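Purpose: get a first structural picture of the assembly so the mutagenesis plan has something to point at.
Setup: two entries, given in the order below. No constraints added.
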Amino acid sequence: MKEGNKKMAKAKNSDKAKGQHSRLTIGLLASSLMDSRTHDIWNGVTDAARERGVNLICYLAGRVEDKEATKGNMRQALVDLVSAENLDGLITFQWWHNREWFESVCHRFRDAAHQPWPIVNCMRLYQGYSGVAVDNYQSMRPVIEHLIEVHRYRRIAYVGVKEGHATAEARYRAYVDVLTEHDISVDQSLVMPPDYAEPWFGGAAGIRYLLDEQKLQPKVDIEAVVFFNDAGALEALDVLQKRGVRVPYDMAVVGFDNIKKCSITIPPLTTAAMPNYQTGKQAVETLLAKLEGEQVSEQVIVPAPLMIRQSCGCLDPSVAQAKVGVITEVTESIEVAISTEREQFLSNMKQAANANLDSVGEWTEHLLEAFVAELTTQPLVEFVDLDASEPTAIFLSTLDEILRQVEQTGGNIDAWQDVLSAMRRDILPYLADTYRADDLWQQGQILASKVIQQAQARKQAQTNQQAATIRHIGLELLTTFDMARLADVLARNLPQLGIPSCYLSLYENPDAPAEWSRLILAYDQRGQVELEEGGRRFASAQLVPEGMLSPEKQYNMVVEPLYFGENQFGFVLFEVGPPEGSVYEALREEISNALQGTLLMQGRQQIEAELEQAYAEVERQVKERTAELFEEIVQRKKAEKDRERLQQEIIEAQKLVIRELSSPVIPIMNRIIVVPLIGSIDSIRARDITRSLLVGISAYRAKVVILDVTGVPIVDSGVANYLYKTIQAARLKGAYTIVTGISDAVAETIVDLGIDWSEITTLSDLQTGLVVALDSLGVEMIRK
Amino acid sequence: METGTIQKLENLLLVSVPRDLMDEEVLRLRREVAQEVRQHHSRWVLLDFSLVDICDSFFGRFIQSMAEMAGLMGAEVIVSGLQDAVIETLVELGMTLPNIQAVLDLDDALAFSREEQQADNLLLTDGESPSAALTEVQDGE
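Result (structure tokens, whole complex):
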């Protein structure tokens, strides 16, 4: 980044850049813009950097101490990104630091040649190091002096003594010294001891100590209380109001720091204004001077001016200034006075305007001329209704014009009421007739307050709009669960907040933030920058990938850390648009929350995918197992069937054997077979007998078959019919059948049933049958 | 499709009935048999069914008509080689071929015819007419 700048600057021979060859880049290492003091310093640094044409990167790294002590500070990751690669010098501001801390920081930041960096510390001075700070002793003195010299208080209490605390000691010393110088002895009962309560500057504790512990009466025993800082003073205002002690009438209260709330309390707090903004500006000047090698005072003191409000007993200064006071005899006419005292008038007006802009002189001159012109061009005696809208109302239209310009340039409009007061104070004594002039001034004051009101309303509307936009972004981000949409929401909305460019990066490894990061969102004036899927990788300390920032443009960046709970995500670089730091802090929070949501969702999706995979695996296994089981069942069924078949075969075989056994075919002689029939005969058996008989005839070439029915218990018509058929079959096979064994009972049955067996040779016993058979074959049995 | 082969064997006319017998072939076979009987003055017509393994009602009619035709020409029909399945079917259908001599196979058929011839010759030498002897044998059946 810096390299690029150098090259470009060389080519363009930049006149603004202070180095011979490059535009400088300075860093500001601070805690958070939510802290008002840091915020003011940042504003000062920002304005100075812009005026001097240097780049600024503000690292909001939280409370930076040694690592062990601040494990809880998630912002601290940013400290590792502060790198000599990007920066030429560094400004540091921390509330909490002490010398050891500061030395460790200086030790840490060294450039490539291992030379310590040019570092300027804000708000605290360490021997041997550069710094810009307030002289607490010299700044506290006017506060105490004001109480004694202006308000004549002598019973002045002090809350906020702390031994070993440099600031506390300096401020307390101022109290003691100023009192002593005014011949007021320091009454220890009016000083809260350091170990009385925690915190040692506590307002509530202070009041308790003074009013309850010491039983001091407001207005009588105690006229004013000086607090170490505004935090204590404001707390005391609160407590006193509850106790019915009226500030400043019963007791005055003053503080130190001039924090924002001071101007809106009842009554507004008189305090020493901590010059945060000026400190920031001065720090830039000192750092740049060091970088340019100028001989500068290493340690710069900036004053913390007394800011008089009402809690000390004063009127508001603007109100006080509006008074002209006693007019001494003045002889000169207005014309003479204007020509002789002109420079004095203008100087007073300019001082009241309280701004260093060149144009202020011009404006005050115009205003004065318009005033004089208006007074002199119209005769004072001819008092007529003056209509402000008339073109002749030169004074008011000039004032209106000036106020608009002041607002546009961001100047302090309020001060112009004081300018009018200054004019009146200076000019009124010279006027013979004050009506006309006073009218103009009165109208001018009202015009100014109107313009102030409008400006405030506009500012409020702008702030509301800003808050609404941030809220809108927050809402949109709330429903954003992927990086692409998150980037889209930001790129769409941030320009509405006036943020010209933004770069959002995530740490590749949150445990080592300083190593690598991936840029996932980048937009600038040209719109959103196309990035690779998963982001563009770069060394974290570079803050953005090479070539992302235009080297021609001066930039002013804020680096905000992104984290949620204990999860580090990355950081975001905002180019500073609106000077309200709360905008960047709010965005930091919204983006961090959205990232947490997105990452959670990504994690959940990953888990879901894994679950799904696991389910699929289980399902597959179940399927496999089912198939196996099915196969097994089929196999088992098949085996069962086989077994059944085998059983059937065995049964069949057995049946066959039985059948064969039941009707045996016995060859007894050549071509004669005997078939003895035993048991009852049914149709199936008759068929079996026929079959085996036919087979027997073929096998033994039988010509005669003796069918013996001795063993057949019952011969009815059915049986007779079966036997008839058997005999016919045998005949067709060429065999002649003789039926033997017809018992008397059978013979009787056959006759009774009327069965015609006439064609069949029937005999009573097997013996006779055999003889007949032999005879039919022409064979004779002869006894040897 | 082959028609039945007809062979003369001594005074026997051997007709080998083919496996599948169509109607027109039956008629042709019957005519051919009749011609052969006339030509050879065969005493017996032997229908050999050893190739036939199926049987229908037509089958019975064929044997019956053949027997009647042969009878008219002074010949007698003998059947041989009926297979067991065929016999079973014939019996079940009640076609028991009452007047026809059945023998087991060709050997038996030949033995039968020779035996009958011998008996005839004996009768003839006793001075009786062959037809009378024949009638007597037939009655004996």
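The radius of gyration of chain A is 59 Å.
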